Amino acid sequence: MVDVRRVKLPGVGVLHTFITDDGGKCGVITHRSGHSDLITFSDAADGDAATKVSLRLSEDEAHTLAELLGGTRITESLSALETLPGLTIDWFTVDYDDHIAGQPLGDLAAKGVVGLTVVAVVRGETANPAPSGDFRVFPGDTLVVAGSPEKVAKAFSFYRSGGVKAAAAAVASIDSPPGA
User: Fold this and answer.
1) pTM reported for the whole predicted model
2) First to last CA, the chain
3) 147 pairs with which residues across the strands?
4) Which residues, other chains included, contact 117 with Cβ-Cβ below 8 Å and sequence gap of 6+?
5) Are 146 and 119 in contact (CB under 8 A)?
6) Helix-strand-coil split of the chain, %, nearest 5
7) CA 15, 17, 23 angle in degrees (round to 5)?
8) Other CB atoms within 10 Å distance of the CB of residue 28
9) Residue 52 belongs to what domain range?
């Protein structure tokens, strides 16, 4: 496992650095504005002959580079989670006519949907992890939820219509054999 060091750069963003197996020093400066700088650097131990390189990447370019380098361990971990029996991770994109649009997330357990977690709400390019019940949801937001397939279906039905009974009927139809 690579040892990654993280340093906050006030007014700029965050610097992540690591040293490669062959002694190279590599880093990424993630700016608050959204772009990133991929850098190699040297320190006093490297002497004056060390070469320094900096490459500015837009947010899309940084994502593309990450994909080309093999993605992240977080992505690999999420893929592994999706194969767990009884666990569904799914996304719900909020439309203008959905019940949840303009409303706080609220407490789904109080509505009869127990055993479901809203993992994050994605708004534009920003993720809001583990949002509280008073987090207000707007059209265009994407809710990332985790739970059993039945609970996810109930939650999505509630987000669309505001009713849990409609969700129970939807789940029953999913669990029923064709023609029943």
Assistant:
1) 0.47
2) 53
3) 88, 116
4) 145, 146, 147
5) yes
6) 30, 30, 40
7) 155
8) 19
9) 5-71
Residue pLDDT, tens place only, 72-98: 454 455 555 555 677 777 788 888 889
The CATH number covering residue 118 comes to 3.30.70.1450
Residue 77 is assigned to a structural domain of this protein: no
Give the end of a domain, one of 45, 71, 97. 71
Question: Is pLDDT larger for residue 75 or for residue 153?
Answer: 153
SS3 category, 46: helix
Domain count, the chain: 2
What pLDDT, on the 0 to 100 scale, is given for residue 69? 66
Q: What are phi and psi of 158, to 5 degrees?
A: -65, -45
**One domain for residues 67 and 94:** no
